[in-house]
Amino acid sequence: MSTFPTTCHFFSGLFYHLFFFYNYTKQSQTPTPKTIKPIFSLIRTPKKFFSSLVAPGACGKPPTIDDGIILAGIKEQYAENDQVTYGCPLYYTIEGGPYKTCINGEWIGEIRCNKPCIVDRDAMNRQNIEFKYSRHDRIYSGHNDMIEFRCKRGTKVGPVSMRQRCVDGVIDLPTCSGR
């Protein structure tokens, strides 16, 4: 007995695709329900598949940004000119934005969350320095902010300036020596 190749008939609905795969079990010119054997039947299409389909000019999900979150405008799909509002955590500084706009199927807008600099007492003790204008044990300084230091009593200034700028979470601490 020979078996004919498997064939497939496809029917599509809103949430389901119906696939009929058949193996012909008897050699016959015209297959009938008695001469075919179903192999598969129903496959559900996930909702995620439909949410990834967007209208022309519309946008899918807005992009994520490092250290940032979407504060307003969250939807399943976005039409032309829809906006989302981004935000950054406490002590972070937003650069650009805070909006991205759906234009011609693309998200337009530059947004970045710059990290703060954290300077604490332990780091300053290792360098023999202290804050020039503060008695705090720790300072959170925003991106591009300046912090001024001074040498601890009995130490001398090293080669790095005592006034330093925070650049996206990085600050060069000056060193004082001679203790």
Automatic annotation (TrEMBL):
SMART domains according to UniProt: CCP
Reading the lineage from the top rank, the first entry is Eukaryota
The set of disulfide-linked cysteines is C59-C102
**Domain Sushi, which positions?**
57-115
SUPFAM superfamilies, per this entry?
Complement control module/SCR domain (SSF57535)
Pfam families membership: Sushi (PF00084)
Where does this protein have coiled-coil stretches? none
- Tell me which CDD domains the record gives: CCP (cd00033)
Compartment annotation:
Virion
User: PROSITE patterns annotated for this entry?
Assistant: SUSHI
Sorted UniProt keywords? Disulfide bond, Signal, Sushi
In the UniProt record, the signal sequence range is: none
- Among its keywords, does the record have Disulfide bond? yes
**The name this protein goes by in its record:** Sushi domain-containing protein
